[in-house]
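To assess whether ligand presence alters the predicted conformation, the chain was also submitted together with adenosine-5'-diphosphate. Input:
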Amino acid sequence: MALRARLAVLYTTIVGGILLLLGVAVYGAVSVTLTTQVDEQLRRTYQVFATNLYLDTSGELSLRESLRMELVPGILFQLWSRDRRLLYTNLPQLAQPLDGTGINASKPIWLDSSLRTQSGDIHLRVYSIPLVAGEVDRPIGVLQIATSMAVVDATLTALVRVLLVGVIVSMSVAGLAGWMSTRQALAPLGDVTRVALQITRADDLSRRIPYSGPEDDEVGQLIKAFNQTLSRLEGLFNTQRRFLADVGHELRTPLTVIKGNVDLMRRMNSLDIESLESIENEVDRLTRMVGDLLLLAQAESGKLPLNMTLVELDTIVLEVMHQMKVLSRDRQQLKLGEIDQVLVCGDKDRIKQVLVNLIGNAIKYTPPGGTIVVGLGKDEKRARITVTDDGPGIPLEDQAHIFERFYRGEKSRTREKEGKGYGLGLSIAYWIVRNHDGIIEVQSSPGKGTTFCVWLPLAEGDCSQGEAS
Ligand code: ADP
């Protein structure tokens, strides 16, 4: 059943249930009140009888003549002797007791009874009073006084009708109101389905769901979340598309170089050292790229094996600085800033790799003559490695994406060969740092320079428990 129909049925059932309970309570209260009034009238009538009852000289129950004058119209009565002879009644055609159960009662009792007549059954309320005399309460007979419940029954029947009509009307209105209001409230969900289908059919992630209602209600939030998911998916798809183009380009160049060199040697029919070196370089580059991709796949899935040991970060920084100085070929000034002695738990080679990627990027993107400063410090709980350059900086729109895999800034994408990056360096750094329970941050002012900051937890005792997460 559709959600709308389910909600409408639910509303209807709830309203119906509540009204039904309320109706039963009202019916009960009215019925008890009216019956009590009738009982009270019968009790008052008995008082009249009590003053007109006496025992004659033979010890038989008798009624004074004056009683008839005092009786309220509509009251029926029967006075029975102790041996169940009918002594007095104003309904001579009835030989049976007004109420068969009450006549044998040991104390006064009000009971409902039914009187069969030619025109049908009459519902009676009968008050049966066992009569006693003397000090030992000797039974001398039974008095039964009755009155018709027709008015009470008619009132209750009318009440039931009113309540039933009320329940039916209320249930219909509740169902209709529920149906209408949910139609209005759930209409945007139809839009969600429509747009989702359009996206699937047209393979177009740029579509968004329009919504004009309040943003903070449930549907508004759902649509907002759905649109955010679409934006994220669109971003991921675009990144992957870009990555495929980049990888295609990156693969084609070395393969062309390799093939060119092989052709050349075949034509020359000899092994040329220069061509072999070129082939080797390109193969190295391809191997590096495949290695990076595999590493990233492992790190992202939390399956990166980490050889956790106590690592002296200062030693690592110095080692990498030495190695990178060779790479920069003194085109930039690679300087050591403040350096502390810091111990962390980690995989030495992976941490080195993070530093190589960050300093490598600084060298790659900082123009000749620029300065790159590497620093190492700490606070109470964390080690802080900083790599600062005075290069071109990273545009604000790129900053949010540079740690995504395959993301390359506009400039580095359009850059010819010299960059030789393929947008994996920072993703790898990000995942390695995350696998060490650390964080990596970037601060950059376009035109002024960039600082990458890596925070790692300081070593606390034994390192053997550290694992890739
Ligand atoms: P790439 O292989 O393109 O260098 P990375 O993942 O290492 O990939 O870097 C992602 C992008 O971040 C780069 O394409 C570049 O635009 C930007 N970037 C990284 N480091 C720097 C830096 N020090 N200065 C300027 N831009 C940088």
